[in-house]
Write a structure and sequence with these properties.
Layout (H helix, E strand, L loop, with lengths): L3 E5 L11 H9 L2 E4 L2 H10 L6 E4 L5 H13 L4 E3 L13 H9 L3 E5 L4 H9 L6 E6 L4 H10 L6 E6 L4 H12 L4 E6 L7 E6 H6 L8 E5 L12 H10 L4 H12 L3 H15 L1
Parallel strand pairs: 1-4, 1-5, 2-3, 2-4, 6-7
Antiparallel strand pairs: 7-10, 8-9, 8-10
Helix pairs in contact: 3-4, 6-7, 9-10, 9-11, 10-11
The structure holds S-adenosylmethionine.
The site of S-adenosylmethionine has 23 residues, from helix 5, strand 7 and strand 10.
């Protein structure tokens, strides 16, 4: 009997976000493969999980570590894979081990839980029917701008991870490539003490991005096809209101995007709000 590789999500800040199942799987695993044994050791202590055997597994040692982990799984050991925060394999190491386990005929099971992208999306107020997880863009300005330009036509809500010191540059490049009027959200320090969801258009967030500290997920509303005239006004207004813009800002932005007067846009905002209530 081979063992099972469990892909276990851990909290992204608030320890209460560990699941009961994750606790059980971590307590009963023979080995826990983790990015940083010290970090995971600390986390397990806080969660009151008696430290099982911790094995370091990260992008730089994956090729070396995989054979030993697969051997252990084939010998019947249960292995839990975790990353420093959130869901393994989502902008984190894990994929190569998961693939190797599948190729070896080992069962791979997800133990779902916190993920910064999903936590940000569900509270952002941008459309959730279709979304695209982009993750980290290139750290180099030229490549980042090209990547953003390639996303300009995407109709779905876009979700990015970014390091705190590049948020301002990201917003400026995104406003340039996607348009200042796009609704956007900075989701900062999710589930932590200084959690903040900052909503506005890309232009507004460039002008006032708030605290430039802490972990962030950036979300941008998708492109709206053919937003050119009064016929599209109500769709634009609904999108802006859904993005959390207050009525006056939504009217200003809708007027800019559709070319109608501010008064007409404001009337459409009021009509949409009445319709919704
Ligand atoms: N595997 C993780 C997950 O499931 O979300 C993501 C790991 S990735 C290396 C780290 C990035 O996730 C950060 O740079 C940030 O963009 C985002 N992130 C992680 N925790 C966060 C939090 N509490 N608040 C906002 N963003 C967070």
């Amino acid at each position: 009997m081979t063992g099972t590789l469990s892909v276990v999500a851990v909290p992204i800040g608030n320890l209460e976000d560990i699941t009961l199942r994750a606790l059980r799987v971590l307590r009963t695993a023979d080995r826990v493969a983790c990015e940083d044994t010290r970090e995971t050791g600390k986390l397990l202590k806080l969660l009151d999980v008696a430290a099982p055997r911790l094995v370091s597994y990260h992008d730089h040692n994956a090729e070396r570590r995989i054979p030993g982990l697969i051997e252990a799984l084939e010998a019947g050991e249960n292995v839990a894979l975790v990353s420093d925060a959130g869901t393994p394999a989502v902008s984190d190491p894990g994929f190569k081990l998961v693939r190797a386990a599948i190729e070896a005929g080992v069962d791979v099971v997800p133990v779902p839980g916190a993920c910064a992208a999903i936590a940000a999306l569900c509270a952002a107020g941008l459309p959730t029917d279709r979304w695209r997880f982009v993750g980290f863009l290139s750290a180099k300005a030229g490549a980042r701008r090209r990547e953003l330009a390639a996303l300009a036509g995407a109709g779905e809500t876009l979700i990015f991870y970014e390091s705190p010191h590049r948020v301002t540059a990201f917003l400026e490049d995104a406003a340039e490539a996607l348009g200042e009027g796009r609704p956007a959200v900075i989701a900062r320090e999710i589930t932590k003490k200084f959690e903040e969801f900052r909503r506005g258009t890309l232009g507004e967030l460039v002008a006032d991005p708030g605290v430039v500290r802490g972990e962030v997920v950036l979300l941008v509303g998708g492109a709206v096809a053919e937003v050119a005239g009064p016929a599209d006004l109500s769709a634009v207004v609904e999108r802006l209101l859904a993005a959390g813009l207050p009525p006056s800002k939504a009217a200003r932005e809708a007027a800019k995007e559709t070319g109608v007067t501010r008064e007409a846009a404001y009337a459409a905002v009021m009509a949409a709000k009445e319709g919704a209530s």
